[in-house]
Design a protein that fits this description.
Keywords: Metal-binding, Zinc, Zinc-finger
Order of helices and strands: HHEEEH
Protein name: GRF-type domain-containing protein
Strand order of the largest sheet: 1-2-3
Region (Disordered): 1-26
GO molecular function: zinc ion binding
Largest sheet: 3 strands, antiparallel
Shape: rod-shaped
Distance between the termini: 64 Å
Biased composition (Low complexity): 1-22
């Protein structure tokens, strides 16, 4: 895993064009395989996820396919954050209603 992260760091600087091509929803890497989701273990990009060739680092395989996973999903992430904010607001409203019901029930019992 550590070797994949260090290899990813090397390829990230040399693959600016690769990341632009990846934003076009590429389903296969340059050698025809499906990319795999990997988590970087380098100090510079610790924990960041990226799509890379399943053959990356194998002897004789130099596909060099590399795309940061977050760059592909920014619109989805923004949409999900808005949805979470809306759901938090609904939870707050339901909590307030529940408190009012409990208070009314307690007043009615006494």
């Amino acid at each position: 895993m550590a070797s994949q992260g260090s290899q990813a760091a090397r390829s990230s600087s040399a693959s600016g064009r690769n990341s632009n091509q990846g934003r076009r929803q590429r389903t296969n890497c340059y050698c025809g395989e499906r990319p795999v989701l990997v988590t970087s273990s380098t100090a510079e990009n610790l924990g960041w996820r990226f799509w890379g060739c399943v053959n990356y680092g194998q002897i004789g395989e130099e596909c060099r396919y590399f795309v940061w996973a977050e760059s592909e999903q920014e619109p989805q992430v923004a949409r999900l954050k808005r949805k979470i904010t809306g759901l938090k607001g609904k939870v707050t409203t339901v909590e307030r209603m529940l408190i009012m019901v409990v208070v009314v029930a307690l007043v009615g019992v006494t």
